[in-house]
Amino acid sequence: MGRKTEFFIVFTIILAVITTVFLPVIITTTSVGYHRHHLPTHPEDPPLDFPTNASRFLQSNGFNFIANLIHVSPELFLSTPESTIFAIPDSVMSNISIPPYMTIGLITYHISPNKLTIQDLFQKPLNTCLTTMFQQQKISITKKDEKNQLLEINNVLVTKPDLFIHGSVAIHGVNGPFASFKFHPEINELPVCSMNQSRLSNSTVDANLDFMKIKAEWKMVVKFLSSSGFTPFAFWLYNLLDEIVKDHPHLHSMTIFAPPIIEVMEIPAPAKHKFLRSHMVPKKHSFKHLASMPRGASILTLCPGKEIDITGTVGNLSDGLFSVNGVEITSPDLLSSRSFVVHGIARAFAIDGVVKV
To answer: What is the rounded distance in angstroms from the CA atom of residue 163 to the CA atom of residue 143?
Structure first.
């Protein structure tokens, strides 16, 4: 998506927000039936009438935000030959506080490049994943009960199945967003996808979910580091992230000691692994906890045979100065989440063959 196109879409979203809040009706409704009924529509109008027809019908069913967006920027929804749109109601959109550029990601995560009616969705096995228009990310069928006409995607109920069917487009109403953008403009809660499109055992589902949650949190840490003055370290961590997560799939807490500059730019891959893992501890240690440890104590790292030694305070502890491996912690508790804590350090630890002090 080019900069001009993205700028136009951002402007369109802002316009959609304004019109949704301040103008109850943007398009004059020509049929009273749109307001009296909430039944799915299957119009026979030419495809070019889709934006107008869809907008009218969505507005009459409480989806003004999506309706306005479809009307003024249909290319966002019709960039592929077919599409399925999962519409979020106004009552939910009004409570989502994210900037316009993140709204693009949120909306496109609710668009699949295939036409899928409710019967098409019911015919797919549980945990089947569907590709979306947001960076090819997936959504998953997490619950289905065809007898009672109940279907959930990413654990969100489809409240208005087959709300609007027109040619190569299907629109379903849902009662909430499929994902949350808690820290950054990316999907933080990824669905569990069945590799063979069949039902997975609970243990397999739980394992896959844990893996994806851990990887998502790792990405959040990388993005934070890259925007906080630790770009070289973040770059190496990003490139080796998949391998670290695969090697430690059950790693639920972590302490990272991040240097702002890495002195050696070109080193062999095994040495990169050694370097990174020597700065990572498979347990969460706050600055307060580190400071409470006696001088000479050591903590294990992800690098076999490598430890981080508590070498004592530098000046007064009340000033927040403390050293490990003889290196000062300059930014204690730089990032602290449920699973991670990041401490900024003055320089990289001395590692044989990688970094020398």
So the answer is: 19
